[in-house]
Backbone:
């Protein structure tokens, strides 16, 4: 399998992206990794012992974090993100990943890679951490800020297929993110989506409140990109603040330092459970190729884990499986 990596996208690019790609190439020698970007900028961060399964594909431009997505993708034809998308579309790579501008990646997916038949809007679908370590597949968490009820119904079907076929969960439970569990709660969007989800070919368990997500009261969480991204950032911020406070408390005195030494294994396990870097990246479901979005501030570890996620998705034939299943189901549109 071959995975194209946007080396120029992200807050820490290209240094951390290249470092993560190097680690991934050494970890999985059966996977060919292609760093897409300015060759001189990439080579400056290689350690001189480049693995044979790591190569560079030139791209002279990059899409900035503050670029307007559609304009940037259309005008910057040789941007690293766009070139990586073109490799996927033309068969030069089986998947691509990027930590760059989310809106631009979404646009690249739509305009360059192409949309899956039967799906109007792709969705960003990361796995959120849960207390039982199984996780909740949540979509959409930021690809589309203005969704329609029909889009949420399509997210539910795609997410259900993903959980069943890739994660092996039989009859995954699908919940709708809302401000209350009772039917009829929420905005006009969630009320209309609730009615569609009741008719969809899924195991719909009703509305779910954000406070219960980590208890895994559903396997697939459906929401619009605006609410979903707020949920994601709130979870990340809370986890970061909690770990910061724990570190402060356990280093305040000799006694607490001794206590920390005893509790360290458990604290590391908690940190890993709450750390987005452990999950690496999230697929944009609904495209004709595998496109994985990494966190904008991804470090080398996160990039390596994103490659791992892409490998798992490719081995499970995620995209062709979802496409085939979608054709066999009545997806509301």
Residues:
């Amino acid at each position: 399998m071959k995975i194209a990596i946007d080396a120029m996208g992200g807050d820490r690019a290209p240094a951390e992206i290249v470092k993560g790609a190097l680690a991934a190439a050494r970890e999985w020698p059966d996977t060919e990794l292609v760093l897409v970007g300015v060759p001189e900028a990439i080579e400056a961060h290689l350690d001189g012992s480049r693995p044979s399964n790591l190569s560079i594909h030139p791209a002279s431009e990059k899409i900035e974090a503050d670029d307007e997505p559609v304009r940037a993708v259309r005008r910057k034809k040789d941007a690293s993100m766009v070139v990586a998308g073109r490799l996927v579309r033309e068969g030069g790579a089986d998947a691509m990943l990027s930590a760059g501008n989310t809106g631009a990646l979404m646009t690249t997916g739509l305009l360059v890679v192409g949309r899956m038949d039967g799906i109007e809007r792709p969705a960003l679908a990361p796995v959120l951490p849960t207390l039982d370590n199984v996780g909740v597949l949540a979509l959409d968490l930021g690809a589309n800020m203005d969704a329609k009820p029909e889009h949420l119904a399509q997210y539910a079907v795609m997410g259900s297929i993903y959980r069943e076929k890739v994660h092996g969960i039989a009859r995954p439970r699908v919940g709708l993110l809302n401000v209350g569990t009772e039917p009829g709660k929420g905005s006009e969007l969630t009320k209309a989506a609730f009615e569609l989800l009741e008719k969809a070919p899924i195991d719909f368990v009703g509305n779910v409140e954000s406070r219960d997500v980590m208890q895994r009261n559903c396997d697939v969480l459906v929401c619009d990109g605006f609410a979903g991204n707020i949920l994601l950032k709130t979870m990340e911020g809370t986890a970061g603040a909690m770990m910061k406070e724990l570190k402060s408390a356990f280093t305040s005195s000799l006694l607490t330092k001794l206590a920390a030494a005893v509790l360290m294994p458990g604290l590391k396990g908690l940190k890993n459970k709450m750390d987005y870097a452990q999950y690496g990246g999230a697929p944009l479901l609904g495209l004709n190729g595998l496109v994985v979005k990494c966190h904008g501030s991804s470090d080398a570890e996160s990039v390596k884990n994103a490659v791992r996620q892409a490998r798992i998705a490719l081995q499970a034939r995620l995209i062709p499986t979802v496409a085939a299943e979608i054709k066999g189901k009545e997806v509301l549109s």
